[in-house]
Design goal:
By secondary structure, the chain is of the alpha+beta class. It has two domains: 184 residues, no CATH class; 181 residues, no CATH class. It is built from 15 helices and ten strands. α2 packs across α13 and α11 packs parallel to α14. It starts with a helix and ends with a helix.
């Protein structure tokens, strides 16, 4: 117990001396030390800054993709994956989705929890003398609430009776409500006109902000399909069928069933290829993860190169420091200091220098998060694992930078060192 206590005391003493000597080195050789710290700081800034920004961006996009519905598939004539070899001409020639196909899919699907139809177009909203140009107009069916759940600040969803009769009622986005009526709350129960048709507002959609993937329900209106088709041409409205699977159904199972059902509905022979696309939300998520994984690797490589440059700078400082303290090292060894103590002292000093550089790098990352959070309109954050990774990286770089100078100091002959 006494031996452990003495060992801890000795280690703390070495730590205190190393910290004091490091600060003294920083004070005496400001320019030389500062240049070396900048190398480490820039390396940490590149690695942690890129990882933090990319991680936050990926998390935001993944959240928005997941808001499209877990275990949800979009049946469209277009394939959403894109790419440089995207055969747009082939997809353009495909027939659009049709409202009647929703009912036929419901008859054939046992794995779907909800199947909805969606039309999209632009239109001008008029209330007295106020006009909103090019508002997003959605024609929806009753099951839309299952496939794409909505939250309301005021009012309610369209009722089954209103859907069935094609009543002239609608839902309005938060921003549109504020622009037309001064406040979202005042919009409830009011009306607007679109293409000469009067629409009564039964619900105000909760404000959600514009998403990176382009979905902006704050600036939309939603109408029952049977009413919407009076003002929207279905074939020109990019119609899409949205299918949400049951809880115990995997996306692969749902996709397989829907593919077979759609081929039956469209009477495709075994030799004919699909004239529709099944776009899974899960596949979007996986594609995004793969893309950001590549960005992480590139950012990491840039940071590693910067850290290597910084490591050589720290190693240079430590070699010079060993040379300047040669007589002191000889004196310590002459009065009984062990090689391990000398080695540990210089390694610790190198690690402390790297930790200082890392702290500067983290401060720069913090400034980056403040700037980018305002520019990108979503929070950039540095996670606890990234902070822990910063400390570990700095310690490793410090040990690698200091191992050769420290070994040289530990192997010095005390007599030769004192004479020097």
């Amino acid at each position: 117990m006494v031996a452990v206590h003495l060992g801890m005391r000795k280690m703390l003493q070495i730590l205190s001396n190393s910290l004091r000597l490091t600060l003294q080195e920083l004070k005496v050789n400001k320019l030389r030390t500062a240049l070396s710290l900048i190398g480490v700081a820039f390396g940490i800034f590149c690695i942690i800054g890129v990882l933090a920004t990319v991680s936050s961006l990926e998390r935001n996009i993944q959240n928005e993709v997941n808001s499209l519905g877990s275990n949800t598939i979009y049946i469209d004539k277009w394939q959403y994956s894109g790419g440089p070899d995207y055969p747009w001409w082939k997809f353009r020639a495909r027939p659009s989705m049709k409202y009647i196909e929703v009912a036929l899919l419901k008859q054939r699907s046992e794995l779907a929890d909800g199947i909805s139809f969606l039309m999209q177009a632009n239109g001008s909203l008029v209330y007295k003398d106020d006009v909103i140009e090019n508002a997003a107009v959605y024609g929806i069916t009753e099951a839309y609430m299952i496939t794409q759940p909505l939250n309301f600040d005021f009012g309610r969803y369209i009722s089954s009776a209103e859907f069935n009769s094609g009543s002239s009622v609608g839902l309005i986005g938060y921003d549109n409500a504020e622009k037309l009526y001064g406040s979202a709350e005042r919009a409830l129960g009011k009306y607007f006109e679109i293409k000469g048709k009067r629409v009564n507002i039964v619900g105000v959609i909760k404000k959600g902000g514009k998403s990176i993937i382009g979905d902006d329900k704050d600036k939309c209106i939603m109408l029952p399909y049977k009413f919407a088709k009076q003002i929207i041409l279905e074939e020109n409205s990019n119609p899409v069928i949205i299918v949400k699977g049951k809880n115990n159904v995997t996306p692969t199972q749902l996709s397989t069933e829907l593919q077979g059902a759609m081929r039956q509905i469209r009477r495709l022979s075994p030799t004919q290829e699909d004239n529709f696309s099944l776009n899974s939300v899960e596949s979007f998520s996986q594609a995004i993860s793969g893309l950001f994984g590549t960005v992480d690797i590139v950012g990491g490589l840039i940071g590693v190169v910067s850290l290597i440059v910084g490591m050589f700078g720290i190693a240079n400082i430590m070699f010079v420091t060993v040379k300047e303290r040669t007589s002191m090292i000889g004196l310590k060894k002459a009065i009984g200091a062990k090689k391990s103590s000398i080695l540990f002292e210089f390694l610790l000093e190198a690690a402390i220098l790297c930790l200082m550089g890392g702290a500067i790098g983290l401060f720069l990352v913090y400034v980056l998060t403040l700037v980018f959070s305002k520019l990108l309109e979503f929070p950039i954050y540095v996670s606890i694992p990234l902070l822990i990774a910063t400390v570990i990286i700095c310690l490793l770089v410090g040990i690698l930078a200091g191992i050769f100078p420290a070994s040289r100091a530990a192997k010095m002959d005390p007599v030769v060192a004192i004479r020097s």
